[in-house]
Give the backbone structure.
Amino acid sequence: MAKIDDITDRILHELSRDGRLSNIELADRVGLSPSACLRRVQELEKTGLIKGYRAILDRDQLGQGFTVYVMVGLSDHSKASQERFESAMRTAPEVTECHNVSGVFEYLLRVEVPDLASYKTFHTDKLGQVPNVNAINSYMVMGSPKNMRG
């Protein structure tokens, strides 16, 4: 694990809030010269602490504004069963996140679709057809008063 001093912590904080900050603006916000700030950011990218930058899309404008968190339980807990499930989720465009979690269920999915009817189709025709899926609990997002995920 990399050692993170106060300035690096501020750089990471600022970039996680706005990855398009210019180096000059970032340097000003964290109290460094632009050249020193650029060196630090490049080192963070080189070591992989900063994995990349991305655009945050307005899912409503894309027609994918219906978000559902789905807890999935498997009937078979073997490695092969988990690999089959994960492979199926990687190829499902509706699934924007897939996490293997501990607890009652094996997986937590973030699913983004246009509407409830589209989610029902995904639930029945895709997720419900994956071998060894034996439990599906769906939680529809009604609002997101805080979303720092980006």
About this structure: The chain has five helices and four strands.
